[in-house]
């Protein structure tokens, strides 16, 4: 489901340890952004939109609990493509993704949404399989906070 | 350069007025997300990446001053496409975009980057022209903060 932008690069560094002495000193992990692309089957567009308008609460909670925020999925009808981007604010991406895949409700969700999509990654089997990733990772070429 | 996800819909509402009584009560405008797509010419990929690794400071400042943050551009080499997403935290998008286009350095930047791209929007002339938009707006089908 994911891949570092530059292979081998570590996720964003944790904020300094210890209690912040004032509120203004509190630092939040700025996180690391991921971008991904996948094809959406033309005859499943309405269905995909409908289920994403009310994603199962267990799935939303698992995403949050795995340190993922500002999770956007955009759709371009002309291209028939879905683009996702999100910020990972945790400190153990691989571990968090294992937790994600360990949730039966998430796996059920993936099975449903995979059926509406076609991966752009050669050899990709499913979201559950993990490798190679069902969504194709994109390269971050610009970022301004 | 932009278009509301749902035409006619207003930008995110301002935070409540008046001084927050404690720091923890301070509310930030959560903003509104935009997603856009454009084609990158195959023979200009390296050049595009290089200039985005050091965007002119005047351009970065103008983006910030126009209430845009978390501005990502992702590239997919297989598709030859660029995907941008950003959060608009201001209260007058049209006005801010006018300010943006009023900056000569921004217009110079657009002229340069337009030359590396092909718009997916029929009839699009340039980023400077504004309408129809050079980058094609995408539809936000999912968001979790």
TrEMBL record, chains A, B:
GO terms for molecular function: racemase and epimerase activity, acting on carbohydrates and derivatives. Residues 1-25 are annotated as: Disordered. It comes from the Eukaryota. SUPFAM superfamilies: Dimeric alpha+beta barrel (SSF54909). This is DUF718 domain-containing protein.
